[in-house]
């Protein structure tokens, strides 16, 4: 035990004084910052009437049925003269097992801790510029026109993602792009965003980082939405090969949403072309979704949607899907949801035409899936 000698008392007083000085010195710095922790936790049960390869029924716990489960940190600070700095850090994990969610990055590039966002930027009256890993502007443009707003289960989020994965996520020496994660998240990216009147838009560029080339391994993406009496959306992005600068993926989309009283009618069209540098066409998928939201009660919104997704290169890679759901908002930060999908999959259906997170439930069959869960935000 330390005895309280005069020397120890002097040291103790000095330590306390130093701690108080450090604390008081840090107060003005903290006062200039606005930092918050946020997140989504989502889990439920998923039943499917048929499951490959046996075709028997299956019941499992499902993470992120409504929205992705994330933990994030964000902040901003006033830099003066109308300029503001900001940052975003966002990790993606699975509620059922606590593990990090898988990544769609190229093989050998590792599993990112902050898969969804790791960026900082500047904004003002002129718009914003963001540097680092971030959401692309193409997908963001269509959230209001996609029939189910790209929900994590039973939407064309997966036709979007897996059609920008096959030709970009290979091992070193194969067709790949190390800045792309399923056409949704982009590393080493610079994005400009702005809102001018009813139009919100973004343009993103990921430099390839390859010596002697401004094209190899790059990504160029753009998206815009118009919000007026109706909502319109459009997007286009190109993902280039790291070795040849080939356009491995070309992806475009158009959408419309029409509010009418308690109803909102939506239609969204997406097309993804995958072509290797050898000239071989991997796929050419048309993904069409139509639907209607009905706010039949202040706390309840029902959605009916139909998706028809087909690979023009392979006519049997085709799924037809009907989705019926209801979201019950217990309060602004808590939602209980029930959603059902009927998936009619042709004999060669693949995940490229699927609206189900885990892929086609039963190739060559019609399967019914029911997912019920709860979604917390904080």
Notes on the structure:
- The protein has 378 residues and is mostly beta strands.
- It has a single domain, classed as Porin (Beta Barrel).
- The chain contains three helices and 18 strands.
- A 16-stranded antiparallel barrel has the order 1-3-4-5-6-8-9-10-11-12-13-14-15-16-17-18.
- The radius of gyration is 24 Å and the shape is globular.
Task: Indicate the topology.
Layout: H1 6-31, E1 33-51, E2 56-63, E3 70-80, E4 83-92, E5 117-124, E6 127-135, H2 137-141, H3 157-162, E7 180-181, E8 185-196, E9 199-206, E10 219-227, E11 231-240, E12 247-260, E13 263-275, E14 281-297, E15 300-311, E16 314-331, E17 334-345, E18 366-377
Antiparallel strand pairs: 1-2, 1-3, 1-18, 3-4, 4-5, 5-6, 6-8, 7-8, 8-9, 9-10, 10-11, 11-12, 12-13, 13-14, 14-15, 15-16, 16-17, 17-18
Strand order of the largest sheet: 1-3-4-5-6-8-9-10-11-12-13-14-15-16-17-18
The structure class reads mainly beta
What is the gyration radius calculated from CA atoms? 24 Å
The major beta sheet can be summarized as:
16 strands, antiparallel, barrel
Number of strands: 18
Annotation field: number of helices: 3
Count of spatially separate domains: 1
Distance between termini?
45 Å
- Average pLDDT across residues? 91
Could you say what the CATH topology is called? Answer: Porin
Q: Architecture, CATH level 2?
A: Beta Barrel
């Amino acid at each position: 035990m330390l005895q309280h000698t005069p020397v120890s008392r002097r040291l103790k007083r000095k330590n306390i004084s130093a701690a108080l000085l450090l604390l008081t010195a840090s107060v003005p710095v903290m006062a200039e910052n606005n930092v918050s922790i946020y997140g989504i936790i989502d889990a439920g049960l998923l039943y499917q009437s048929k499951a490959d390869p046996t075709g028997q029924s299956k019941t499992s716990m499902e993470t992120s049925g409504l929205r992705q489960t994330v933990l994030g940190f964000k902040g901003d600070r006033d830099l003066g003269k109308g300029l503001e700095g900001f940052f975003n850090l966002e990790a993606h994990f699975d509620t059922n097992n606590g593990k990090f969610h898988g990544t769609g990055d190229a093989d050998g590039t590792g599993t990112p801790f902050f898969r969804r966002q790791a960026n900082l930027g500047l904004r003002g009256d002129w718009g914003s510029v963001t540097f680092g890993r971030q959401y692309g502007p193409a997908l963001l443009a269509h959230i209001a026109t996609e029939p189910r707003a790209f929900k994590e289960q039973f939407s064309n989020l997966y036709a979007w993602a897996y059609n920008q994965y096959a030709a970009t996520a290979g091992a070193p020496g194969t067709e790949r792009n190390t800045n792309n994660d399923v056409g949704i998240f982009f590393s080493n990216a610079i994005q400009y965003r702005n809102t001018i009147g009813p139009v919100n838009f973004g343009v993103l560029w990921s430099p390839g980082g390859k010596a002697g080339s401004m094209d190899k391994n790059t990504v160029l993406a753009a998206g815009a939405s118009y919000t007026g009496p109706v909502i319109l959306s459009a997007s286009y992005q190109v993902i280039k090969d790291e070795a040849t600068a080939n356009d491995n993926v070309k992806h475009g989309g158009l959408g419309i949403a029409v509010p009418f009283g308690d109803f909102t009618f939506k239609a969204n069209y997406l097309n993804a072309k995958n072509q290797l540098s050898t000239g071989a066409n991997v796929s050419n998928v048309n993904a069409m979704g139509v639907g209607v939201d009905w706010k039949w009660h202040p706390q309840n919104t029902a959605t009916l949607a139909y998706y028809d997704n087909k690979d023009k290169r392979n006519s049997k890679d085709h799924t037809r899907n009907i989705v019926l759901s209801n979201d019950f908002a217990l309060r602004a930060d808590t939602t209980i949801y029930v959603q059902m999908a009927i998936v009619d999959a042709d004999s060669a259906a693949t995940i490229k035409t699927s609206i189900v997170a885990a892929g086609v439930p039963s190739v060559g069959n019609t399967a019914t899936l029911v997912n019920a869960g709860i979604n917390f935000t904080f």
